[in-house]
Amino acid sequence: MPLIEFTPNGIYVPKADVYIDPFKAVENALITHAHGDHARKGNINYLCHSQSVPILKRRIGHYQFQSAEYGEIVNINGVKFSFHPAGHVLGSAQIRIEHKGEIWVVSGDYKTEDDGILTPFEAIKCHTFITESTFGLPEFDWLPQEDIFSQINDWWQGNANENNCSIMYAYSLGKAQRILQYLNHQIGPVFVHGSIQNMNEAYREAGVLLKPTHKAGSDIDRKEFRKALIIAPPSADNSYWIKRFEPYVTGLASGWMSNGASKAWLKSDNGFALSDHADWKGLNKAVLETGAEKVLVTHGYINEFANHLNKMGIEAEAIPTQFDSNPT
Predict the structure, then answer these.
(1) 54, 75, 106, 223 - which has most CB atoms within 10 Å?
(2) What is the chain's mean pLDDT, rounded?
(3) Residue 222 — very low, low, confident or very high, per pLDDT cuts 50/70/90?
(4) What kind and span of H or E run contains 190?
(5) Are strands 128-133 and 165-169 parallel, antiparallel or unpaired?
(6) Could you tell me if 125 and 153 lie in one domain?
(7) Which residue has the higher pLDDT, 264 or 58?
(8) Same domain, yes or no, for 191 and 249?
């Protein structure tokens, strides 16, 4: 019996009868993190890192959650599981699986740059490493985050000088909180969309000391939005909700901004190449540091990154999933 199988329901560990980030509802699910393409409703039992629990409760509802801390071993029918920092969003984890001396690591999504908020990514030694490849091309090469946040603050200051509101589009979980922490709050007030405020509360419940925010609701005088920065999810673009902040200038924080894809994906006035995923250098560094004999590539540029690893002399295989081209 193989330690791990790839099934229509997702990654399956038959000896323990558990799935990792299952695509469909199952009895026992281990969750790497709380983004919607990894954590879904309908499973009977959930096991995740403790910091993911308040986020999952808000996102998928109240289920049977069991949690573990980083490095804590959970034994399920003789298979040892442990969660290790992925540095992607709060509570994100790589899952280490050990049985009879064989070790696999399922990375989920990960970011190798220490953002100063999350527990930093930790490379885990293993025989087989399952890696994402969302940005698995050489053209994806991130600047240090301090450079990006300097760009964002300069952009906001320029808009405020013109008495314009700044709208920053960012994912509600992870990216929004990261931006919030590194804004220069002396420039003006910071407001957030309700979905982001919900995630901010989950971060605070999990023990993260986020900077203060105000929900951008209809009860606030429109004059207060002048010189303000408002963080909103990309789905809010061109919505009735966003119109109340006119005149405004929009920005988008996404790794996809680094190759010009943003204008085709979302029309925004400005773009900032900020990602919660590893870039090309980060992916290569992570793979090498695991010392894995075999690498299975999922989520993204799977064929390109697997071919690259094979050329390096690392046995690699592309594993198709329903998210191979998902921009996250």
Answers:
(1) 106
(2) 92
(3) confident
(4) strand 190-192
(5) unpaired
(6) no
(7) 58
(8) yes
CA distance 105 to 123: 10
Residues 6+ apart with CB under 8 A from 235: none
For tokens 């996250």, the residue is 328
Tell me the pTM.
0.93
**102: containing domain:** 5-139+277-318
Q: Domain holding 116: CATH number? A: 3.60.15.10
Please state at what angle helix 175-182 crosses helix 194-205, rounded to 10 degrees: 80
Read off the pLDDT of each residue in 115-122 and give the average, rounded to a whole number: 97
Site of tokens 């509360």 = 201
**DSSP H helices in the chain:** 53-60, 145-161, 175-182, 194-205, 240-243, 262-265, 280-290, 302-311
- pLDDT, one tens digit per residue, over 119-157 is 999 999 999 999 999 999 999 999 999 999 999 999 999
Structural domain total, the chain = 2
Cis peptide leading into residue 234 (ω within 30°):
no
* pLDDT tens, position by position, 33-45: 999 899 999 999 9
Q: Are residues 182 and 87 in the same domain?
A: no
Asked if the structure places residue 323 within a domain, the reply is no
Considering the chain, what percentage of its residues have pLDDT values greater than 70?
A: 94
Q: Can you give the CATH number for the domain in which 230 is found?
A: 3.40.50.10890
Give the strand order in the sheet containing 45-49: 5-7, 10-13, 18-20, 28-30, 45-49, 64-68
